[in-house]
Amino acid sequence: xxxxxxxxxxxxxxxxxxxxxxxxxxxxxxxxxxxxxxxxxxxxxxxxxxxxxxxxxxxxxxxxxxxxxxxxxxxxxxxxxxxxxxxxxxxxxxxxxxxxxxxxxxxxxxxxxxxxxxxxxxxxxxxxxxxxxxxxxxxxxxxxxxxxxxxxxxxxxxxxxxxxxxxxxxxxxxxxxxxxxxxxxxxxxxxxxxxxxxxxxxxxxxxxxxxxxxxxxxxxxxxxxxxxxxxxxxxxxxxxxxxxxxxxxxxxxxxxxxxxxxxxxxxxxxxxxxxxxxxxxxxxxxxxxxxxxxxxxxxxxxxxxxxxxxxxxxxxxxxxxxxxxxxxxxxxxxxxxxxxxxxxxxxxxxxxxxxxxxxxxxxxxxxxxxxxxxxxxxxxxxxxxxxxxxxxxxxxxxxxxxxxxxxxxxxxxxxxxxxxxxxxxxxxxxxxx
Length: 433
What we know:
It is a single chain. By secondary structure, the chain is of the alpha+beta class. It is 54% helix and 18% strand. The protein contains 13 helices and 13 strands. The strands form three sheets. Strands 2-1-5-4-3 form a five-stranded antiparallel β-sheet, with helices on both faces. Strands 7-9-10-12-11 form a five-stranded mixed β-sheet, covered by helices on one side. It has a three-stranded antiparallel β-sheet with strand order 6-8-13. A hairpin with a 2-residue loop joins strand 9 (341-349) and strand 10 (352-359). Helix 1 packs antiparallel against helix 2 (28-58), helix 7 (197-233) runs antiparallel to helix 8 (239-271) and helix 9 (283-298) packs parallel to helix 10 (318-335).
């Protein structure tokens, strides 16, 4: 028998032994009376200690341990030690649960803990934002009642744990979520949601990019291939007609070469693997070169003016700046009708340096301006093909300016022309002197 319980049994045993000794001397009545009195005293002793135990157990945590007597002192001590162990264990469990909740709240994905009936037991802040629910307000609410989308309800009913569900948010149509159920515990489930909006945009851009490249290459390849087939089938070759065909093939070949060159340039700029070499760039000298190139490209069809209102220089990469400025100038020449005017201007505006190209061309509607730097985006595809553009020029300009901590500003008015400005921060400007 345990040492804890022995002190509870020896008093009655001792009393019985004393009664047996008194029995022969004073008779059975006296012996039984003495035994009964002893048991009554012992019962009162236990009652008092039981009352103390009850009061202690009902008291707030941290109450003083009762000063029990006899075996009860050991009982109180054992309960006290057991309570300390339980309190310590509960504290560790609470700390572990708090750490888990903090970790779950820091996860960038949404997390729902659902019971077997699909009711919300807990969710993190990301899930609250994505599904417009509240962890407190919607506790034990069925998630199917809160997210009323047919495809979501069907997914929950099917309990397809292998494949995620991709769906648009009803409250925010621009938000695309990937949702997956994960079973755990006793018929409980985790509902994980991830914002894949950016991934969807990248995938859309990839598909558009492949489609646009294929489309841009198909026309020149068709032209070149068609002429070559006609030469192959011709019994006699008309040299005068062939020269026209050769010129067309040469133009289409140069168009493909320009497209490939622009793609390689864009790839280099987007990869960010090549560290940009920097030097002091004499912008005035660079713009004089670009002015001559523009005169050659225009071939007398436009009035081209160069205005150098500042003689400051830039800290940057001369090759990239030549490419960016050249794209702005060539676009102005291509999209300005014959007889129009184009102005190239280098100036300071406060501490900021700006290279601006202003033309008197057809202009651009306001709703199209924000998309002009997208790859292959064209306001007028037919006119772009006529002018020979690849649709990548402004995208290249944007990347180059970003590498120089600059920005591209565009303003335009239909029928009155456009203004494109490459703006550079003060830390890139080197004053002359």
